[in-house]
Amino acid sequence: MLNLHKSASAMAEAKNYFPGGVNSPVRSYANMGGNPPFIAKAQGSKIYDIDGNEYIDYVGSWGPMILGHAHPAVVQAVQEAAARGMSYGAPTLGETELAKLIRLAYPAMEMMRFVNSGTESTMSALRAARGFTGREKIIKFAGCYHGHSDSLLVNAGSGLATFGVPSSPGVTKGTAADTLTLPYNDANAVEKICAAEGENIAALIVEPVAGNMGLVLPRQGYLRFLRDITKKYGIILIFDEVMCGFRVALGGAQAAYGIKPDLTCLGKVIGGGVPMAAYGGRQEIMQKIAPLGPVYQAGTLSGNPLAMAAGIATLQVLTAEPEEGRADYSRELTLKTKELVLGWQEAAKEAKVAVQVRHAGSMFGLFFSEHEIWNYEDAAAADQEKFKIWFKAMLEQGIYLAPSQFETLFISTAHSREDIEKTIAAGREAFAAVRAAG
Ligand code: KE4
Known about the structure:
Blueprint: H1 5-14, E1 39-43, E2 46-49, E3 54-57, H2 72-83, H3 93-105, E4 111-115, H4 118-133, E5 137-141, E6 154-155, E7 165-166, H5 173-176, E8 179-182, H6 187-197, E9 201-206, H7 222-233, E10 236-240, H8 252-256, E11 263-266, E12 277-281, H9 283-286, H10 305-318, H11 329-350, E13 356-360, E14 363-367, H12 376-380, H13 384-396, E15 399-400, E16 409-410, H14 417-436
Parallel strand pairs: 3-15, 5-8, 5-9, 9-10, 10-11
Antiparallel strand pairs: 1-2, 2-3, 4-12, 6-7, 11-12, 13-14, 14-16
The structure holds ligand KE4.
Ligand KE4 binds at residues 24, 26, 62, 117-119, 122, 145-147, 207, 211-212, 240, 242-243, 267, 407.
């Protein structure tokens, strides 16, 4: 049994200050039972809790830690930046330097704006799209998460043709009424709505590779279809690559699938673990943003020096020429992820446990289901009780995973062959535990 005594008392105290004792709901382990480990430090692929337990980390702070924790180049860059002053609220060379690195990997981001979270980036991209088109309605997809701005906390209405209903108290009916939530990977649903409402729709926002209902891949041709139909109706296509950016491929899903969105949202990796996100795209849209245009968006700490330093250092390492005889980072990450996925698939088969294990570049996910997972309905039908047993068995063996099957896992450049082999072996034990639980 894991010794989590200090974490348990830490959580008891934290609950006096924060709802559920945490500053983001998924960290609470609420649906897993028990307390989350309180983290003391992390280094490379490892994370350590305040009880001294060591884990191999596949959460990676929910995506940002693509180089692993405390990468020397990133730490040094942030330390040097901090010594020059934490924040100025004024333009700096670092912002332009990071923008250059981002635009090299995402050429569709002709012009961009830095913000401090993925929520801000998607919220601002939607406002840009509405300001540019003069339209008010938007389309999103069930199971895709784009942060917690009101317009995006909306579930599907009773029928496809009706507008949204708030998915959280505090979101007004009026706001939800402008959001249409459709099933992911369902071209007909989009076709029907565009035929009925196309000229009123400002934007369609999608996770081109979905990571917030567990990992769900776009069906063959789906993203091309979304690009074509949004072009046909003058709808702004927004690729929310906050999670899948730099993960599916260095240039994200838009590079992997060869689709040019009108706007792109990035986050996580580009801050290297420091709060940082961005939105950007077609020049004529972004020129609507203040102070150039009338669409207002601002931020005290946007483009702050620490995030710029961490982001520049991270992308410089990621895009460095591979050493002699080595694959580039993206390719290496993908190969490592593939090895782990194949190992888990084999282990589950040996244990006669039905699983769906998928990866896209260095992001991967697992469902306990006999059926392939193509949308939120499929994901919600997977066996969450089995996931819970498996998750706990993995944590006991020192494998730190997301405490929800509706999340995605991440590999870093710091994960070693030994880490992968240990994780496959732990998977074998955990699948056996699932099997034994019947
Ligand atoms: P933030 O506001 O949390 O920085 O980003 C929101 C966001 C936007 N778009 C996508 C595709 C995202 O995955 C996210 C945030 N991802 C979650 C993980 N499922 C962050 C973890 C959390 O909420 O604590």
